């Protein structure tokens, strides 16, 4: 039976940051489930960079069904967790069920992949203190306030925590995450 990986997300998550790891991990032979606040069809977004804008732009993205609600997740059934970015982490960090899930993964030292604004979730459960991370560069002050050492590079590995800045860093992010997974939770 293949190892299971959990992706936690919600509406307004960045499409590529959910679907790229979903497909890449399935390609490696993992069983991947997407959890959200409730079982429903999620509406993702596309963040892009356009000349003349001071920050990224946002457009409607793909829709995708959540396999289960956060309240239905048993963290013990999963070998690793993926935390995509987009705007979803801004409101998901307040979800008590998700906070329990995240704490369980860190308490068990299971592999965690986070990207873009995803580290807002791990910061909310005080799991970044003393760690090295990267995130969307605008979050550098947030990462420092959470007690993390911020590095503006494609991917940062700190034990079982693998972080990346945004979807352009997917190849480096997944390459490093798969190295951790192959050691801790082979497919």
From TrEMBL:
Q: Which residues form a coiled coil?
A: none
Q: Which InterPro entries match?
A: C56_PfpI-like, Class_I_gatase-like, DJ-1/PfpI
CDD domains registered for this protein in UniProt = GATase1_PfpI_1
Q: What region holds the DJ-1/PfpI domain?
A: 4-179
Superkingdom, according to UniProt? Answer: Bacteria
Q: What's a Pfam family in this record?
A: DJ-1_PfpI
Q: Which family does it belong to?
A: Belongs to the peptidase C56 family.
Q: What is this protein called?
A: DJ-1/PfpI family protein
């Amino acid at each position: 039976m293949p190892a299971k990986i959990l992706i936690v997300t919600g509406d307004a998550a960045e499409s590529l940051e959910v679907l790229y790891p979903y497909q890449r991990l399935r390609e490696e032979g993992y069983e991947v489930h997407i959890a959200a606040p409730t079982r429903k069809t999620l509406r993702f977004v596309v963040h892009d960079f356009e000349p003349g804008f001071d920050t990224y732009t946002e457009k409607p993205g793909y829709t995708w069904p959540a396999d289960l609600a956060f309240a239905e997740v048993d963290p013990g059934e999963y070998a690793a967790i993926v935390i995509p970015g987009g705007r979803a982490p801004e409101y998901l960090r307040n979800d008590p069920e998700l906070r329990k899930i995240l704490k369980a993964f860190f308490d068990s030292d299971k592999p965690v992949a986070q990207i873009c604004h995803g580290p807002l979730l791990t910061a909310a459960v005080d799991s970044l203190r003393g760690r090295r991370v990267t995130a969307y560069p605008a979050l550098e002050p947030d990462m420092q306030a959470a007690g993390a050492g911020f590095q503006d590079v494609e991917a940062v590995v700190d034990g079982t925590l693998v972080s990346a800045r945004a979807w352009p860093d997917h190849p480096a992010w997944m390459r490093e995450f798969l190295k951790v997974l192959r050691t801790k939770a082979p497919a």
